[in-house]
Every structure is written in structure tokens, then in C-alpha cells.
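Ticket 4471: requesting a sanity check on a complex prediction with pyridoxal-5'-phosphate. Repro inputs:
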Amino acid sequence: MPEPRPRPRSEELYQRAVQLMPAGVNSPVRAFRAVGGTPVFFTKGEGPYLYDVDGRKYIDFCGSWGPLILGHAHPRVVAAVRETAARGLTFGAPHEGEIALAQAMQAANPHLQKMRFVSSGTEAVMSAVRVARGFTGRDIIIKFDGCYHGHADSLLVNAGSGLVTFGTPSSAGVPADFTKHTIVCDLDDVEGFDRAMREHGGNVAGVLIEPVPANNGLLLQRAEFLQYLRKRCAETGACLIFDEVISGFRVAFGGAAQLYQIAPDLATYGKIIGGGLPVGAYGGRSEILDHVAPLGRVYQAGTLSGNPLGMAAGLATLQILRSENIYERLERLGARLESSMNQLFTKHRANASFVRRGSVFWIYLAPGAPPRRAKDLDADSARRFTPLYHELLNRGFYFGPSAYEVGFLCAAHDESHVDALAEAVDAALANGIGI
Ligand SMILES: Cc1ncc(COP(=O)(O)O)c(C=O)c1O
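Returned C-alpha cells:
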């Protein structure tokens, strides 16, 4: 296992942070528990780079877990935030920025006939689930093992022991009663899903899925599976809910809905639509959204919802994404990295796969084809990943600190950055690291 390079200032700050915050962090994976060692503390992000408090520079492939598709501190996004901030940070009342961002989102996603802005992906999914229930008058939500939808109580669920069982809480502090209306199915399993629908179809309010599941590695789904969910939801009156918090404006301007040409009834967004500020959104068919208060009886609200800074950062980001043909560029970079990595895996006879959809990628260190279901993940892949993680960190590449987190390319990356990553992986594999 490579010795972590000394980062005395990060160490010192971490010792202070753990006195004040659980494990010193404000979101658990940041604590580095999955890979060991001390979290790196950063002072600056610029384009594709992060700079830590010990004066080291990293090529960033985490991108703050997805929002930074344009890289850090894009000048136009920063300018939009500055200009907006000078006119007031929040009004707690309607303003034109909300309309502008909603229109930009709708232009790419025609299924968003109406939408609401909130302040995080968690809030977006929690609200979409509530609306699905309010609209249908039904209770049950079907979700899929390995998909993450934020930390709302009813979605922190493990699969129960049987195939079509009610979920059990996956977090302390969530009463079993809160998850009893959540059913967990396997991804890529038409039969299992059918069984659940046969048993509960008449009471299923929503079928919730990450159409590009990117929270347990990258468990790419067959289009037919997603199409099947669409068909069964239409037949039973359940709402198909696409959680596009990662995939929205990432895998295409119109997200997974565009990529797979499937219109969900409801969709949730976060990350990119806030351009690096805390913004989420949920939306869908007007008929459904009209159940939200004060038009309807589904309550949802937020002091800072639609706040001007988030709207401005999101709008600037979407405008750049739309005008500069960034998806083609990201696809080219992604394909280049994929081809290099596959050559390296062959050269070093590594049991590994490079899984990719556009600018989202995942290195899976295990033999065989990459899985489509969470339960097929090889637990040893995480053991192999840890030394590779530290080797890459030592060489100046920053990734989310876990074997099951995906990497993100951004528009500020170029060929030199992906080639540098491939060279570093080449050197690591040559030393038996990651094999
Ligand atoms: C698919 C998906 N849904 C929801 C969430 C929750 O979003 P947030 O962390 O903004 O609450 C995430 C977070 O990573 C996510 O990846």
C-alpha cells in the first residue's frame, strides 16, 4: 500500500474538525473511511484543478460529486453570481431568475411541464415522492437496490429478505414504519419488478430509479429495462420517477430522458442545475404538479427555494452547456480515456473494467463483465481500489474517496489531463497496485 504523502496542514485541520463535526465532515464519504487516511483540505478550485492547504495541486475528477461540469470557478458562472449577489442574496419572494432557469430546463426536457425549485437533491426526491403519492392516492414506492436518492427517511432502505418484501431501514433513526411503504427491487430484473407490480401494482404510487445508476459504481442499465418500467407504469397508473440528480444535464443536455428517449412522469434534479450552489428541482406533468400547494393538497415549501444566487449560477451553467457543444467534447475525452484504460488493463492483464456513460466513469477492479445489479458487485474490488486511490492521490489526482464513487470529466479537462491519468494508472499497475 503506497504511503500517503505527508499533508501536515490537512492533518492539523482534520484534528480540529473532528472536535466540531462528526468525523470532521458534513457528509460521510468525505471522511475517507472507505479508503483510510485523512481527508484532504482544499483552499482553491480553478478549472480542472484543486489546490490543497499544503500547497499541492490535483487534477480533479470528483468535480464536487457532479455539479462542476464546467470545472471550478468558471468565469461566466462566477460573474453571474457576483452580479446577482450585489442585488441581494435572497428575497423570499418570486423573481425573474426562477423563470429563466425553469425555461432553460424545460427547453431541454419537454416532460418538465411544470417544476419547483428546492435546495438539494434530497429535497427534490423527497418532494417528488410526496407528489406521486398525493397525485395517485397510493402509498407504495418501488426503488432499486444500489440506487441512492438522498437521505429522506423513506428512501434509506435496504432490500428486505425476500424478493418482493418491504424494505427495512438502512440507517439508525428511521423507524421501520417509515420504510414499510418502500419496496426494493433489483436493477435489470424484469421478473422481480413484475412480481412486485403484480403484488402491489394497484397501490404503487411511484417507481423511482436513477436511469443511469451512478451511486454504487456505474451500474449501466439496458434501455429495454427502462422502457419496460415506462410501460408498466403507464399500464398501472404509477408515476415513473427518474432521479436525474446526477444524470440531468450530464449524460446529455436533456439527461437520461433524452438519452433513452423515455419521458418520465416526474423527474428530479440537483448538482449541475445549481452550477455549484445548493439547488434541486422536481418537475413533470402539469396534471401531477398541480397537486402541489397552494394549487393542491401536497405540501412543499422552502425559505431559500429558488434563491437568486443558485438560479443565476444554474442558468449561466446551462447557457454555456447549450451554446458550446460541450457534450461532444466530453464524449471525445471520455472515449480517449476509455480506450487508454482498456489498453492498460490488457497490457497489465488486470482484472478490471472501465465503465462509462459520456463524462461519467468508473474503474471496476474485478474479473468479468461489469455488473448491472448492486448485489453482483465483487466485494474484493474495493480492497484492490484502496491502494490505487492513494497512489493516484499521491500523484496529484483527486477522486471521490470510495471504490463505489464514479469519476466525472468536465469541460475544463483536456487531452493532457486524461492522458496524465492514464499514465499514472499505467505506472500503478506496473507496480502491481490495483491488481
Ligand atoms: C441520484 C441522486 N439523487 C439524490 C441525491 C441527493 O442529492 P443531495 O446530496 O444534493 O441531497 C444524490 C446525491 O448524490 C444523487 O446522486
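Notes from triage: The first strand starts at residue 42 and ends at 46. Leaving this open until the requester confirms.
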